[in-house]
Amino acid sequence: MRHSSFAIPSAAVMMLAGTFTMAEAASIHVRPIGIELQAPAAASVLTLTNKGRDLVTAQVRVFRWKQSGGKDILEPTRDVVASPPILRMRPGRENVIRVVRVSKRPVKGEESYRLIIDQIPDRRRKGVGVVFAMRYSIPVFFHDRAATPPRVSWRATRKGRTLVLTARNTGARHERITKLKVVTGKGKSLVISKGLAGYVLGNSTRVWRVKTRVPMTGVITVKGLGINGPFSRKVRIR
User: Fold this and answer.
1) Engineered SS bond to 49: which of 29, 64, 79, 129, CB 3.0-4.6 Å?
2) What's 199's domain CATH number?
3) Domain end residue (candidates: 118, 143, 168)
4) pLDDT score, position 127
5) Selection from 21, 14, 68, 22 nearest residue 204 by Cα
6) Same-domain check for residues 63 and 181
7) pLDDT of 15
8) pLDDT for position 11
9) Are residues 196 and 162 in the same domain?
């Protein structure tokens, strides 16, 4: 069974139900916001602090993270586990989640996972206000010493008013892209993301589809910020 990942940022908010008058949501501080380990290291921890005023209960799960057809795919896995699977976070208290790769298979290249932390709504508060459930999606990577760094190439096509921008990573390790934009030959900019645009996993492809009225023909320049700093690539629209 496959689960499509709808949240690449490290936190996403989903309103669950109700046409109420108040809004209340837990404020959970997570550190670090990502985990990267080089084999033979296989364990790390996350610390969560409940900055709100109420008890928060959350479910913790780990999914294998892949990219197919330019999209993020999350699949159930037993290769990496998180403990405890259920957290009851009291206000002001620190809570530790231990993340361990339990698979006995050696890491080859880089393995990518997502640690998903879902707040479980308190049904007893139904009718008091709008109940929000917080979803935190934390990237987790395990790589070997020989894993090659990211090598990303770009491709652009135009379909009507939609610009289709494709990043292909032929390296073994992931690329993290922020502040992604394209600049036309006439100097007009189309901002795709002011913050985190997404990840291009090792030996994978990531696609962005952006509706725009900005004329896109000829050669454009793709700009952004990767793990190793700013990049600028000229791409011919096909």
Assistant:
1) 29
2) 2.60.40.10
3) 143
4) 55
5) 68
6) no
7) 29
8) 34
9) yes
Cα(67)–Cα(24) distance, rounded to whole angstroms? 34
Buried b (16+ CB within 10 A) or exposed e, 7-32: ebeeeeeeeeeeeeeeeebbebebee
pTM: 0.84
> Both 27 and 110 in a single domain?
yes
The alpha carbon of 182 is separated from its chain's Cα centroid by a whole number of angstroms, namely 21
Quote the CA–CA distance of 144 and 107 in Å, as a whole number: 6
Q: Which residues of the chain have pLDDT under 70?
A: 1-26, 123-132
Instruction: Please state, in angstroms and rounded to a whole number, the distance separating the CA atoms of residues 179 and 163.
Output: 17
- Token pair, residue 40, equals 């033979």
Q: Report CA-CA distances (Å) from 189 to 22, 135, 156.
A: 39, 32, 15
Query: What is the dihedral angle through the alpha carbons of 50, 115, 134, 209, rounded to the nearest 10 degrees?
Result: 140
Among 210, 204, 238, 222, smallest CA distance to 71 is for 204
Q: Please write the tens of the pLDDT for every residue from 189-221.
A: 999 999 999 999 999 999 999 998 877 789 999
Domain that holds residue 53: 3-143
